[in-house]
Automatic annotation (TrEMBL):
Protein name: ABC transporter ATP-binding protein
TM regions (residue ranges): none
Gene3D superfamilies: P-loop containing nucleotide triphosphate hydrolases
Pfam family, one: ABC_tran
Record-linked CDD domains: ABC_cobalt_CbiO_domain1 (cd03225)
MF-aspect GO terms: ATP binding; ATP hydrolysis activity; ATPase-coupled transmembrane transporter activity
Keyword match S-adenosyl-L-methionine: no
Signal sequence annotation: none
Domain ABC transporter: start-end pairs: 6-236
Length: 249
């Protein structure tokens, strides 16, 4: 049996207007791995993530979750395994209250009664949002919305967590909390972000996309030490690796 939870082979994506957003992308992710996908604006990160739970379907190439090829026929099975947190929390929250939003996923999986209550309470607790349970999602601050959006995914206990720009809009305290949460999540995770300091802390492996293609794939610290690669892909070293601007150390 393959030890890969995600396998992507020769994936290409062309949008209806002819933009080739992904070009021959191939990589796999093993159980428990934390992988960052980084790249400049327009590099293809969100397009790649959308293929992992079938929001976009491949016309050319293949995406497999476990042994299951992602296709129209396998969407339900795939989405039980892959929990996706979107870049914009408003795409994830649509019920009258936070509690109902967090309960929506597990209810669809057939969970009811006390078990459902436990799932919801546990997910809200993990993102420190129990006090928001009865609030309307559209009344929440940007950071609160993001935490609740994460809870809607955690409540389904996914084996793979996929997050598009998870630290966007978070204040430093909430960002720090989120980093703790991500480090505690023991299953596989794939994260896109321009917050390269968070990437350095959370992900042991980094894939660099440039112009829709995989430009590099390796240990995060090695990728960030490669100044030429970063320059060519319009990226910058994380601040924590840039040394002290005063003493040069
Ligand atoms: N619906 C669409 N129709 C046409 N082109 C699109 C569409 N969505 C994205 N693109 C194009 O596909 C390419 C990749 O976009 P994508 O959103 O995947 O990049 P990204 O790396 O996530 O960028 P960012 O860091 O800005 O979020 C870009 O050239 C973008 O203009």
């Amino acid at each position: 049996m393959s030890h890969h939870i995600i396998e992507i082979e020769h994936l290409r994506h062309v949008y209806p207007d002819g933009t080739e957003a992904l070009h021959d992308v191939t990589f796999s992710v093993t159980h428990g791995e934390s992988v960052a996908v980084i790249g400049a604006n327009g590099a293809g990160k969100s397009t790649l993530l959308a293929h992992l739970n079938g929001h976009l379907l491949s016309e050319s190439g293949e995406v497999r979750i476990g042994h299951v090829p992602v296709s129209g026929a396998t969407l339900e099975q795939v989405r039980r395994t892959v929990g996706m947190v979107f870049q914009d929390p408003d795409d994830q929250l649509f019920m009258p209250t936070v509690r109902e939003d967090v309960a929506f996923g597990p209810m669809n999986l057939g969970i009811t009664g006390e078990e459902l209550k436990r799932c919801v309470a546990d997910a809200l607790c993990r993102v420190d949002a129990e006090h928001l349970a009865e609030k309307a999602p559209y009344h929440l601050s940007a950071g609160e919305k993001r935490r609740v959006a994460i809870a809607t995914v955690l409540s389904m206990s996914p084996n793979v967590l996929v997050m598009d720009e998870p630290t966007n809009g978070l204040d430093p305290y909430a960002r720090r909390q989120l980093i703790g949460l991500l480090k505690d999540f023991r299953h596989s995770k794939i994260i896109t972000s321009h917050d390269l300091d968070m990437v350095l802390e959370v992900c042991e492996r980094t894939i660099v996309l440039s112009g829709g293609a995989v430009r590099a794939d390796g240990p995060t610290r090695e990728i960030f030490r490669d100044e030429r690669l970063l320059r060519e892909c319009r990226l910058e070293k994380p601040l924590s690796m840039q040394g002290c601007p005063v003493c040069g150390g």
